[in-house]
């Protein structure tokens, strides 16, 4: 189950890497690539958001809704400005050690590696990379959207079909456990 607190901190991490506003298209691509890298390294996405193929490439559904202001969240708004001219910025400074408490050292390593590999690209270059083979799970939805099967992502990053299915089963169990636990808090 998606944690708005963790997703907000992932966004804050990337936004803190620039002294200027960042196009939301770039941010959503970086967040998707971080989820994908985490799946490759640890068998789970960082955000636990659902991924979709959309016309501009793969996106994290609820994260995109937060960016666009289609979902309100006090956690998100405590880190990220409202969307203005297709750009987002931090609303407060970030100290990795003190502020990003939902992110483990392994999570931070994933985010650092994604930033090192892709942070220099603008939003359109990142979009083009996701269209041109970086994320082969993306399929042009022809103006619509289509959920990306996590089993496909696992297979594309090198897992056998059996291992991919087991990892998806584990993801679904984690989401269900998080959902049940959220009813008690």
Describe the structure.
By secondary structure, this protein is mainly alpha-helical. The chain contains 9 helices and 5 strands, in the order H-E-H-E-E-H-H-E-H-H-H-E-H-H. It has helices at residues 4-15, 24-42, 61-68, 74-77, 96-99, 105-118, 123-131, 150-156, 161-182, and strands at residues 22-23, 51-54, 57-60, 87-88, 146-147. The strands form 2 sheets. It has a 3-stranded antiparallel beta sheet. The chain has a two-stranded antiparallel ribbon with strand order 1-4.
| Regions with little confidence, pLDDT below 50 for 5+ residues | none
- In DSSP terms (H or I, runs of 4 or more residues), the helix count works out at 9
Classify the beta-strand content into a percent band. Answer: 5-15%
Order of helix and strand elements from N to C terminus: HEHEEHHEHHHEHH
Count of β-strands: 5
Work out the helicity level.
Answer: 40-55%
List the helices and strands and how they pair.
Elements (H helix, E strand, L loop, with lengths): L3 H12 L6 E2 H19 L8 E4 L2 E4 H8 L5 H4 L9 E2 L7 H4 L5 H14 L4 H9 L14 E2 L2 H7 L4 H22 L3
Antiparallel strand pairs: 1-4, 2-3, 2-5
Quick summary:
54% of the residues lie in helices and 8% in strands. With 185 residues, the chain is mainly alpha-helical. It is globular.
Tag the structure with descriptive keywords:
185 residues; mainly alpha; 3-stranded antiparallel β-sheet; two-stranded antiparallel sheet; 9 helices; 54% helix; globular
